[in-house]
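User: For my dataset I need records formatted as: sequence, then structure tokens, nothing else. Please produce one.
Assistant:
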Amino acid sequence: MKGVESTVSDGTTRFTIGAAAIPLLREAARRLRGAEQQAASARSAEAAQAAASRERQAAAAEPGMISAERLRSLVERIERLEEERKTLGSDIKDIFGQAKSAGFDEKVLRQLIRLRKQDPADVELHEALLDTYRRALGM
């Protein structure tokens, strides 16, 4: 069996991971990263709520004044969300790469995802119109 051999630091334990298990391990690692990101998001959401509460209190205490703390809090929240978006985009790109290596067409996958987001009645109407237009053009 072709695989990866590894030795534990004490030098006594050896194990082999079969080639078929490697994609499963990668998927498990991806899921673990996702769980860690969700936990971080939950922590940042709690922190954002606490910051928003402090901002409301500061704004109520000083109407018409620009609060440096509030501004800093808003900027930090935006920066955290942009970082999360960047991480999610990277994860999505990795999944599309996995799909492509498995023989799936990325363009078609994106189209399927777009269609699944739409209302089924709208999709049916669109497909009927597209079929009508194709027949009119002799396609």
